[in-house]
Amino acid sequence: MVFLTLPLWIRNRGPDRFWKVQDLLKHARHFRGRKNRCYSLAVRAVRRAFVYATKSRKLKKRNMRTLWITRIAAATREHSMKYPALIHNLTKSSIQLNRRVISDLAITEPRTFQSLAKIARARQQEGFRAALGDGREPPGVLSRVVMLQ
Amino acid sequence: MAASRGFTGLWRTYVTLRRPPFCVPAAVRTQSSGGGDLLPRTSLSRPPWADEPSPVGLEEEQRRHAAVVSAVNQRIQNRDFGRLFAVVHFAGRQWKVTNEDLILIENHIDAECGERIRVEKVLLVGAEDFTLVGRPLLGRELARVEATVIEKTESWPKVHMRFWKRHRYQRKRWVVQPQTVLRINSIDLAPNLS
Lengths: 149, 194
Fold this sequence. Notes:
- Chain B: Belongs to the bacterial ribosomal protein bL21 family.
- Chain B: InterPro entries: bL21-like (IPR028909), bL21-like_sf (IPR036164), Ribosomal_bL21 (IPR001787).
- The complex is a heterodimer.
- By secondary structure, chain A is mainly α.
- Chain A has helices spanning 6-9, 17-25, 39-78, 83-92, 99-108, 110-132, 144-148.
- In chain B, the strands form 3 sheets. Chain B has a 5-stranded antiparallel sheet. A 4-stranded antiparallel sheet of chain B has the order 4-11-8-5, with no helix packed on it. Chain B has a two-stranded antiparallel sheet with strand order 9-10.
């Protein structure tokens, strides 16, 4: 080891530790307890907070969708229908409104939502009529339905 | 394309029943205990609303439909509607917009600031007394939605952090998305409706 002068004998540390620490603590200032002041505790808390924020961005999409579905189900039940029937019949009528918009309409535009429910109900009845037909078997077929007639 | 209205002046094709809870429906399947219902009759085996009312005949339905269509046509001809709202498909999302609305879009658009844009995919247009529902879109000549690009900016820096505990693995990345702000200027209906 060669130290030519006394100042060089003193170890030189990095000049910006203060600012690096503040950069991390600024993300922890709104936390509760010593995590908002003490660096070691803050490091762990901030890491958890960032990871939760990352994961929650995906969860938020799922939660919002369940919320919309719940709201649409409640609104359709006010009109004597159920949610699966509404969605299925709207899709069959080639109305491609998504759940967010339908829930917004149910909240702010009740008459429009009622008209959508009517469209779905009409399509449902059409489907039932097409499925039940006229209640007769095809000609030449002998079955319980024919015997009961 | 279906047109429908919620006018209380005319008849309603759908009857709102006062909710008599668990009332006996008109068409009761009277079955003996030997035959058996499909389901045992409990408090939850039927929905809490009563059965639907008897369906109207085909001619009556067509007459009502024609009356509704002509009434809506007249409204549109006389431009008798107030504020219109529309459901519009733009940038991969559906938006319920009206006049003077601001929309924040999380991506870049090729138009410059201050340019006027016509939003083409209109799914639904509604006024106070009638709604026009597109299957799935309304015609281009029927509804016209115009917007202006107000602002093109970037989002606040969001953090993307991965961490596996006990494996000494963590990655941190700051993500900044481009954003665009649109102002919906006007929603318009054309006078001809088939």
